[in-house]
Amino acid sequence: MMTSEYLAGRLLLAMPGMGDPRFDHAVIALCVHDIHGALGIGVGRIKHGLRLHELLEDVGIAPGMAPDRVIHEGGPVEPQRGFVLHSPEWEGPGTIQAGPLGALSASRDVLQAIAAGEGPESWIVALGYAGWAPGQLEAEMQAHGWYAATGRPEIVFDTPVSARWKAAWQAEGVDPALLSSSTGRA
């Protein structure tokens, strides 16, 4: 069990056959992992039928200079709650540093800054998050549900959404086509 090493700043990759269809081929940017549990933002799927300009207008922000990007499915918890995973040079109230992946903000301030053209250099917007109680993520990892890959911002911000799971495995030196969907116990 991983009790002394916290994994914030890593990419969690769903193992084939993990058993939960909500996380099939999931890529989760793990932003918080400590004695209280873990919180991550899904960066491997988009929310179809919703784009940034519509979301901004829904929360009363004029889109301004913001490009009309896709919205990510951040996770099954609180799917109406918005998050921005972004490069670390921008910081506002409540921003959480997420190691090599950058930072996480959940306030309107980051959306207003993006619309004004004054936001972070790199960013993605997500609705919802993935959360784990204390010890839950570690147990799921022991059951071969997740792999903690190195947090690589270029995979999150520069790789097409549909290619992130495969690209993260390949960056770890693993051919995902060779991964088994079942595991054994010794």
Describe, in plain words, how this protein is organized in 3D.
The protein is of the alpha+beta class and 186 residues long. It is built from 5 helices and 10 strands. The chain has helices spanning 52-58, 108-115, 136-142, 153-158, 164-171, and strands at residues 11-14, 27-34, 37-42, 46-51, 70-73, 77-86, 96-97, 103-105, 123-132, 146-149. Strands 1, 2, 3, 4, 5, 6, 7, 8, 9 and 10 form a 10-stranded mixed β-sheet that branches. The longest helix has 8 residues, at 108-115. The two termini are 16 Å apart. Belongs to the UPF0301 (AlgH) family.
Note the main attributes of this structure.
186 residues; alpha+beta; VC0467-like; ten-stranded mixed sheet; 31% strand
CATH hierarchy class name = Alpha Beta
Structural Rg? 16 Å
Residues in helices, as a percent range: 10-25%
**Proportion of strand residues:** 25-35%
Please identify which CATH superfamily we are dealing with.
VC0467-like
Pick out the low-confidence regions.
Answer: none
Overall pLDDT level: 93
CA distance, first residue to last residue: 16 Å
Instruction: Give the count of helical stretches.
Output: 5
Morphology:
globular
Major sheet: 10 strands, mixed
Structural class category:
alpha+beta
Order of helices and strands: EEEEHEEEEHEHEHH
For the record, the count of structural domains works out to: 1
Task: Predict the CATH topology.
Answer: VC0467-like
> Could you give the count of β-strands?
10
CATH architecture descriptor text: 3-Layer(aba) Sandwich
Oligomer: single chain
